[in-house]
Amino acid sequence: MGLIKKGAASTKPLAWKVELRAKIEELRRLEQAAFGPRHGKTDFHGYLRAVFNGWDWANPKVSRRVGRRVAKLYRIDTRKNKIPIRVVIDATCKQDRQTKSRWAQALEYAVARGARGNAFKKFLKENGGVFGCATKMAALRKRKLGLERSR
Q1: Other C-beta atoms lying within 10 Å of the C-beta of residue 134
Q2: pTM for this structure?
Q3: Which of 14, 53, 79, 89 is the most buried (most CB within 10 A)?
Q4: pLDDT for 113
Q5: 51: Cβ contacts below 8 Å, ≥ 6 apart
Q6: 34-40 long-range Cβ contacts below 8 angstroms, 24+ apart
Q7: What number of other Cβ atoms are within 10 A of residue 77's Cβ?
Q8: 7 vs 82: which has the higher pLDDT
Q9: Least confident range of 4-13, 47-56, 97-106
Q10: Which of 2, 55, 56 lies closest to 24 in space, CA to CA?
Q11: Three-class SS of residue 61?
């Protein structure tokens, strides 16, 4: 009968790590392709759609777990108010801070409004693109904060 030493580290990576790394690498590839030498104005919408469809962002338990795991795996700084979508964007994107923030707000708005994954690009277009969605999310957050303060 073989005994396993207590505290012996397994050489196999956990299944969730392998799956998560594969998803993150795919998202990185999509982001690089969206900003390649001959890219169009809205090519990055495919990248955003992949982030949106990658996990169940509407489920708080799942989204928090994804955010924590990505942050741990890729050593991303997290603060109290950082949403899991932003953590994934930080791990997969090389754009500037302001662009990442706008993208995260747009995706958060799509989640808040219950956009369907297969109609994500249409949702963006109907709501004024990424900038329009981000603006609407900021207004929605402000309204929600105002309601909480008046209680």
Answers
A1: 21
A2: 0.85
A3: 89
A4: 95
A5: 27, 85, 88, 89, 92, 107
A6: 35/95
A7: 8
A8: 82
A9: 4-13
A10: 55
A11: helix
Phi, psi of 66 (to 5 degrees): -60, -45
Beta carbons of 66 and 52 less than 8 angstroms apart: no
Helix axes 84-92, 97-112, angle to 10 degrees: 140
Rounded Cα distance, 97 and 150, in Å: 32
Residue type at 82? Answer: K
Structure tokens at 67: 């955010």
What is the b/e burial string over 80-114, where b = at least 16 CB atoms within 10 angstroms of the residue's CB? eeebbbbbbbbbbbebeeeebebbbbbbbbbbbee
pLDDT of residue 151: 62
Taking the C-alpha atoms of residue 97 and residue 82, their distance in angstroms, rounded to an integer, is: 13
Q: What is the pLDDT of residue 30?
A: 95
